[in-house]
Each structure stands twice: as structure tokens, then as C-alpha cells.
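User: Please predict structures.

Assistant: First:
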Amino acid sequence: MATRSSNRSRPGLVLLALAVLIALMFTLMATARTWAPKLGLDLQGGMTITLTATNPTVDAESLALAVSIIQQRVDGLGVGEASVTTMGDRNIIVSAPNIGRDDLVELVGATAQLEFRPVLQVVGATPPVDEGTADVPPLPRPEGGKGVLLDVDEVLAYQPTQEDYQLLQEYQCDEPPAQAMDQAQVVCDEAGVYKYLLGPVGVQGQSVEDSTAGIPQGELSWAVTLDFDSTGAQRFGALTGALVSKPEPTNMFAIVLDGKVRSAATVQAAIPTGQAQITGQFTPDEAEGLANVLRFGSLPLDFEPSQVESVSPTLGGEQLRVGVIAGLLGLAIVAVYALIYYRGLGLVVLGSLVVAAGMTYASMVLLGSGVGFTLSLPAIAGAIVGIAVTADSFIIYFERIRDEIREGRSLRSSVESGWRKARGTILIADAVSLLSAFVLYVLAVGGVQGFAFALGLTTLIDLAVVFWFTKPMVSLLARTKFFGEGHKLSGLSADHMGVSRQQLLGRRVRRKEA
């Protein structure tokens, strides 16, 4: 039975399939023109920003919630290995690689005050007036609190005053707008091309339950889809139902985010379903960024960046150099040991390690390009530990083959029967490693998560290498004269197995005659 099973196996096809997979991975790297993994803060450097809460009182619960929201914002943009921690009772420190200063400040400091307001009038924006030559001082903006949320009927019945029109004419786009929900508001679009006179708030951003970015079916441009809760859906339906019959521009509603009009849409029909789309010729990054900020909500506290500094990778680069030297030295020791103890089979160990290293590198490059995975010192440590697990798998399999030979089986039979008995142990060992990596990834944060992710990745690659390279390669070598007849340098010789050559050859002869 073992011989027939061996004859039916196709190790050459398995090796060919693995070669195609590896070639595909490197082809994807070439297509993306990405040949190096993204490096973490400790290796590449990046930005660190200190946010200080400006509220008179700051409670620990609000600070912890702010940390959670900022962490989700940074992770949502694919900025791996980002660290968000508290310092003292009102400071948050954010460290992130692969992101510029302005992008980081904008990302973590945005308050995401989203409002839906009816449009009352639109005019072209004028350049700011030089304060030194201004003849007429600007009209003071309305002061006071944030006001209250009016009923939709009151929002629709609002009539702009003469002061509102005067403010529209004199407002400059670099001025902060009025924030009262129950009053008119003058704001500009992001480009500063148009000024909008808007009515009171129709729907608040808190009513947005979810936000996603994508290209709608049948469309060509990116859009951000918003899902409202029941209250928001009811108010938005009433708002759009009333605006649809009004003349331009009062048949439009503006989507205002942090005092800027992100989109001003003409209402084509009432939208009672609770779903809306923000459009405006977004780039993919702009759409993803907007959806990310809206999805994770506004911060519970007001922050201002008290310190922004660049992090140098010098120290991490030196640690990486020392770590690479130590890793190469360790692999060299493993290689020498494998060649001395397993002789010819040691070449299989070396080949398997090379394949595992190549697949690990390609996976990290592709994951960095696809999901933002960054390679840090902890991740490198996790990868080294995972490759060590791969070496353990070889030992389990090779020793099982040797045991089968000592029990009286032929070499070719031992390769197959040894594999059947060894693969269960290999699977259990890798399952334990994967479980450990999963638990560590879920419970840990920052660099420890990078260690866990790399450990899990290399463990999965270990399974692929052992099943699709090591085992089929040994099966092919067992069919050669050098290994099949137990040459003294093959690692499968009779004296190396602890049996006599005559005994080994006799058993093989009897098996052939049978």
C-alpha cells in the first residue's frame, strides 16, 4: 500500500505549483513597483505629536475614549505600528511612521463636527483683505453658545436677516465660522472658491451610524456613503422632501465638516431611507480619509498640538544592523549543524529556509502595500522566531524517517510513512504557535502586535513550505541513487541510521521480490 501511494504522489507537480505561487508574489511586487517593505517608526523614523486637552476639566474616561478614537483613526488609514498613549492627566502622545507632519496633525486633531444645513445663498469667495488697508472693519460674528437643534419645520422656515447677508459679503474664508446650531452660518468650501450662507442645522453628525468610501455601482468617481440612525433618517427625509421643490440654490443642502463645506448637493428627490452619499470628485485617499474621520466620530475633548517632532531612525537602524548580524550568525550555525548531522538532507533544510525567507519577505512587502503592515524590530523578532519553528518541522520529519528505517522499512516507504506520522505533530505545533500569536495580537498593542503578526505569518508560511517543498523534495530525492541507496554522504546511510547495510539492502531486496 505504501509503495502504491508513493507511486501515485506527484511531488514534482507540487514543487511546480509552489514555484508558480512564489513567482506570482514577486510579479505582484513588480506590478506595484514595490520591492521593500514599509518600515516602522523605529527603523524608518516618523512623526510624534503631543496633544494637550484645552478643556478646563479633563476626566480619565474622556481621555481614554480620545485615545481609542485616535488609535482607530490612525489604524484606519493603514498606518501600522502607530502608538497612541497618555502622558499625565491631559496629554496624548501619538507616534506614527510613514506619515507627514501636516497629515498627522490633521488626522488626530480633527473634531469631525458634521452638520447638514440647507443652502440659502451662494456667492464667489473674495481674497482676504489686508488688515492694514481695510476701510471697513469686518462685521462681528454672532457670539454665544452652540444653540439648540431646531425642529425640521423651524429649520425650513428660517428666513435670513440683513445681518446674515452682510456677513456673507464681508466674511473671509480664513475666519472661523459661527457654530450656533439654531442660527445661520457663513462658511466656505475647502478650496475657498465659494461662500455659502446656510440655514440652521437640519441633521447632526451624531446621527451618522456608519460611513464607507467606494465607487458606487454604475459610477466612475469615488463617493462616501453615510448611514443615519432612525432619528437622523427621519430628519433627513423631511429635509430633502421639502428642499426638492424649491428653486436654486435653496433646493440644495450643504454637508459641513469642521466649518468647511465638503459637498453641496442639489436634492433630486426625497431620501427617506436613511442613506446618503457625499460626492465631489474625491480622490481615493480623500474619500477614505473622510469616511475614516466620520466613522470614528468626534473627540470628546478639545486638543491642541503642543509639540510635533520628527523621530530619527538612527537608533533603530543600529539595532537592526546588530539584529541582522545576529540572525545571520544564528542561521549559519543552524546550516552548519544541519550539514554535519543530516549531511545531504541538510541541503533540503537550507533550501527550505531560503524558500521560507523569500516567501516571508514577499508577503511583508505585499502586505505593506495592501494593508499598511510595517516592519519594525519586534516584527523582525517575530519573523525570526517563526523561521525557527520551520527548522523544528524539518527535524520532526527527518527524525521520523530515521525511526521508520530503524524499524525495518525501506527508505522510500519510510519517507511516506514517516510523513504520515510526522505531519500530525507538525500541525499541532504550528497550531499552538498560531493560537499564541492570535491571542497576543488581540490583547497587545503597538510593537507587540507587530511581533505577534509576524509570528503568525511566518508560522503559516512554515506550513506551506513543509507541505509543498520539504516533503515533495525529500520524496524526489528518495528516488535518486545517491539517497535511495543510502550513500554515506546522503544522511540516510546504514551506519548513520544505526543498522547494517546488508540488513538494509536485504529488506529492500525482499520488498522488491515480494
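Second:
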Amino acid sequence: MPSQPEPSASLQELVDAWLQTDQNETTRSEIQALWDLGDTASKKELERRMKPRIEFGTAGLRSRMEGGWARINDLTIIQTSQGLCQYVLNQVKDASSRGIVIGHDHRHNSEKWAQLTAATFLDNGMKVYLYRGLVHTPLVPFGVKRLNAACGVMITASHNPKNDNGYKVYWENAVQIIAPHDEGISDAIQAHLTPKIWSTNEVFTSSSCLDVTEDMKTAYFFEIGKLKLPQYKPSLNPLVFVNTSMHGVGYPFVTKALAPYGVTVIPVKEQMLPDPEFPTVPFPNPEENGALDLAIEQAKKCNANYVLAQDPDSDRFSACELHSSGVTAFTGDQLGAIFAAHAFETYRDSGKPSAKLAMVASTVSSKMVEAMAKKEGFKFVECLTGFKYIGNTALSYEASGWDVPFGYEEAIGFMFGTEIRDKDGVAASVMFVQLAETLHRQGKSINSYLEDLYRRYGYFKSANSYYKVDDPQIIDTIFARLRSYNNSSVSPNYPQQIAGLDITSVVDLTTGYDSTNPPTYKPSLPLSSGHMIQFRAEQKSDGTKITLTIRTSGTEPKIKYYLEGNGKDRSVISKLLPQVISELGNDWMQMSVYHLEHP
């Protein structure tokens, strides 16, 4: 039986190999039907599905569910599991007896692919802890740590559209994998492409496939219970919260976790139960425009104070506040600052010295926590984007004697405590409710608390978005121009101004350049696998500053930008950010030249 053909193989060779290898009747028929049609459109579709092969990276796999070497399906799941299993057996001590933790969400194929993964590991002599039923993503890293497993796999596509699915991998330290494991696993997949097992019949009869689901849930909720602050008590007139789980798996987890807090939590019934079709939200991401409309509408009807939201696998969190003048939808950066301040105050009030406290955020997140750390005397640590870096950075500082109770990224991901070094939407819901109710007893709200933080640490405002770019060569051309912007013989030669502000520093994590670190000019952060440049600029007359990070997306054909302004006068910043965006698009990105799409 053939394995994966060479990358240079013709379309016919790729199709023939697929039809000979795939044993799933549905995906085989998809490819056969496209090949039989033979028209131009069908061949283009086959080209998209057949190459390049789906690539395993630090995010594992994520793609559309359909036949083809470039997609996620039974065959690529089996191949990935075979390679991952061999790599873990070679790299992790006592991997066979320590085993793997496997969970899945409610998406189409998720349960089957969790079982296929389990069958592959069992076939290679490894113990398997396979969660029964639907779980939220944080329960997998929790289980890896609690069971001292060799690795973990969660089958989920998080907040992607309904046709996508994914394969997220956790290492033995219960954090998402980083280099060099991603490359090592990818190489192992290539070395073990021939599928050896297609049946899942023996998964539930194997003595090596253990059901620890209820034990892990019990232990998880016990640890979540530790997040309840000693001084917490509900007010005489407790707040009302509306909660949406975005048609995902989070509802039973959030409901149980919030039960001890004495507040009213009303679910959005249309989005309460798992539904892989996501009928009310085509993009089930709380950050998307319109995603929270149903929840806000229900909150208005029942006079609720806040909306809580988790994405479908319940590892991300978002929130809104309803008040007399309307609705405040908090950004990920605003929630990050709110949670960080709350974590600092809790730590300080416990009597511990601030000098032992550290917090972590991704480099594209707000610099407000950095300003907070400078004023309050704790350590702020920056890392690359993604919780694989945030979690590993937290573990590293913890091993060096620091207390790291909080970390976040602007994409509504928040990490609390020490038991799960990953984002957790349930934990974030618990912390938000506690803070909101505590403030309510004082006659305040989350929004007024944020305004207090602005007065103490300065006003910060984010404006993040992206440009859609389908051609990788255009992306390379745009970034090459930014690195030789003024047509000078001096290298590097980045832009020196934007929107009238002088650029004060440049950190290029693609080429390895940091203007703030002479004489080596080497950045303190590791290099990025894609293009990534961060500019800081300042208006010297009034001290207004911006931070602008431009990076390629690891999963989508986009150039993303993360823009933040900070200073004393919010009106100045509010006027400045659109000017920066205009110059960024028209000049730096050359939108009209390359016909870039900007939402």
C-alpha cells in the first residue's frame, strides 16, 4: 500500500495514492467524484485538497474536514497519530506506562478522531486515558499534569467555522508543544505515513484504555474552587449574568463552576447546547462582530448586568457590561488589564512581596500590564504569540522561584493559577464574576474599575485587525519593503515615522534584529516562524506613544496588525489610531497596489 507521494508528484499521482490508501468511503468518494468530473473547476479543487500536505506545527493540525492530503480526515489523523506516538515513545521516559490523555469536543468527526487516535496509541503499546463524552479543552492539559501523562491530544477547532476541525497536542509538561518538538513530530509523521490501523472496535475493550473522566472532572472543579477568594461573598442584591457557550461544550462546566458564587446565571438557550452546525453564529468566536448579539438581546430583556461568553471549546472568554448608557464590550486587552490588576491586588493583599510576582503576556498584547508592573514593582514578561509560549514561559519563571498567577493574550485567552498553564474560559468566568460582584458591593462596576486603572496607569486603546493576502509572495514583498523602506544603502532601513510620530524602536523577530539592544542588536525573544516586526513610536511633544506589531498568521492567509496607543489624553489617542491605520494600509501595506482586503 502506498504512503504519501513525493511533494513533486503530479496531481494524478496524488489522487491515485489517495484512492489506494484511504479506507473511508466518504472521503474516497469525494476525491473520486472530483477526479471523474475532470473539468477545470474540479481539478483546481483537487489541487487545493491534494497539496501541499497538511503541515504539523506548534498548533498541531487545523483544517477543513474533507478528503485530500492537505485536509484533516481519517487518514491524516491516523498518520499524525502514528508519528506523534513514535516521537513520544522515543523522547519521553516511560511513555508507554505514563500514557496519553485524549479528549474531544462536539464537532463533526471529533469523537471518531479521538477514538482513532486512541486506537493508534494502543496499537503501539501505550496506555490511553480517553475521556468519555464531551470535554472542554482545558481538561486535557489538566489531565496530563494530574496523571503525569507523556502527552495529550484534544480534537477541536476551537472557534473556527463548522467545516473545520483540529488536533491540538500537549507535551509531558501539560503545555502545548513548541520547537523543536513540532519539527520532530512532523519528521516522525513523514517516517510513519503508511496507516496501520483503521478500526476503533477494540478501543473500549482494551485494558490499556482507561476511563478517568469523572475523576478528572472532580479534581478539576476542586482546583477551580480554589480560585474563590477567601473574602468573597455575594452582595445583598446579587448581580445577574447572561452566559453563552456558543453552541459548544462549556455550559455544564461553567454552570457548575459558578454555582458557589450566589449569583444568577441565565443561559442563552439557543446557544446553550452543543451543536456542530453552529446555527446562530457562522463564526463562533466571541470576538467576531455580531457573535454576542443574541446574548446582549437576552441580557437587555432580563435586565442582566453582564454577559459572559466562552468559545465552543471553552478555553477563551469574553464579556460585556450593560449600563444606562448602553453596552460596553470589553476587548481582550481590556480584560487582560482588569484581570492582571485584580491578580496583583489579590497577591499584594495576601502579604506577599511584589518582587516575587511575575505576569506573562504575548508581545502583541497591550503594554498596560507592562506599565502596571513598572509602577507596582512586579515583573512583566513578554513572549511570542500563543499559549504554547505563555505557558512554557510561566513554567520557566515558576521553576526559578517566581509566583506566576496570571498570563494572557489579546485574543481573549486568560490563564489563572498554577494547575493549568493554558487558557481557560471557565476559570476566566469565575474570576470575572468574583470581581464584578466584589465591585458591586462597593457600588462600582467592571467598567468603572477599568477607568480607575486608566487614571492610575495611563489610557490604553487597541485597534487590531488584518489584511487578507492570498499570495505568499506578496506577503514576502511587503515585508521586504518594510526592511528597506527608504531605499538607502544602510541596512536595516525600517520606516522612521508613522502618522507624524517618530519611531523609537524596531524589533524584527524574523531577521533577529532589536534596535534597543546594542551592540549585538539581538532580540531577547526567540525568532518567529513567520514574518513579525514590532515598532514603537512616540509623539515627543506630549508623550503619546503607540506600539504597532505586524505579523503573518500561522493558520490563515492574512497579515495581522496589533496597534495600541497610550497616553494621558484619550481624545488624542482616539484621533491618532485611525491616522496610523490609514498610513499603515495606504503606504506601508500598499493596499491599492496589491488589492488587499481590509475589514
